[in-house]
Specification:
This protein has about 190 residues and is mainly beta. Strands 2, 3, 4, 5, 6, 7, 8 and 9 form an eight-stranded mixed beta sheet that branches. The protein is globular, with a radius of gyration of 17 Å. A hairpin with a 4-residue loop joins strand 8 and strand 9. About 15% of the residues lie in helices and about 45% in strands.
């Protein structure tokens, strides 16, 4: 069973893009290069960036997160979505049902697909941590945020072999609670 007060680090997930091997080949003439590793094991922020565009808006210099995946995915906040003139669904990463159409552009080419979502709030963990806490994948937990603008929000458990124990909030949520990367929250079951 989860401890009454389990501390967890909070990290901020800004808009970013995941690419397939096929999309990468249309957009770049070289492999992705590592700008910096991320806490999630094996993942990295690439030096490479793209432009994302809809009929109503555009963002340039959007970071690619590697390695390459089996699906294209663009993750934005609701504020970003408003500027792009779209209404993407809130989804777990990899669930593209109902995703909005968006075009990913580089100097080499472009890829258009229904792959734009708002990522659900989540807490990463590996199976050992999940077992320790008595948590299963997709279980809804409560994150208690202290500080100048405190609050309690739901986060979903995201259990994976390479999961590094931390919460991911998008920029809208982070700004609403005045979160700085590395702030500590308290995770509970209710």
């Amino acid at each position: 069973m989860i401890k009454l007060r389990e501390e967890v680090s909070i990290n901020i997930s800004a808009r970013h893009v995941h690419l397939t091997k096929e999309a990468h080949a249309k957009l770049f003439d070289h492999d992705l290069t590592v700008r910096n590793p991320l806490n999630q094991i094996g993942q990295f922020a690439a030096n490479e960036t793209v432009t994302i565009k809809t009929a109503n808006g555009v963002f340039e210099n959007v970071r690619i997160i590697g390695p390459l995946r089996s699906y294209n995915q663009v993750e934005v906040s609701k504020s970003d979505a408003r500027k792009l003139g779209i209404n993407p669904p809130v989804r777990k990463s990899g669930d593209l049902s109902g995703a909005e159409e968006i075009t990913i552009i580089t100097n080499k080419g472009e890829v258009t697909s229904n792959c734009c979502i708002i990522a659900d709030r989540h807490v990463h963990m590996n199976p050992d941590k999940a077992k320790e806490l008595g948590v299963i994948d997709d279980e809804i937990l409560k994150l208690h945020i202290n500080g100048e603008k405190p609050g309690i929000i739901d986060v979903k458990a995201k259990v994976s072999d390479d999961g590094y124990y931390e919460v991911h909030l998008d920029t809208d949520d982070s700004n609403a609670f005045l979160i700085t990367p590395g702030d500590i929250g308290i995770l509970t079951k209710n």
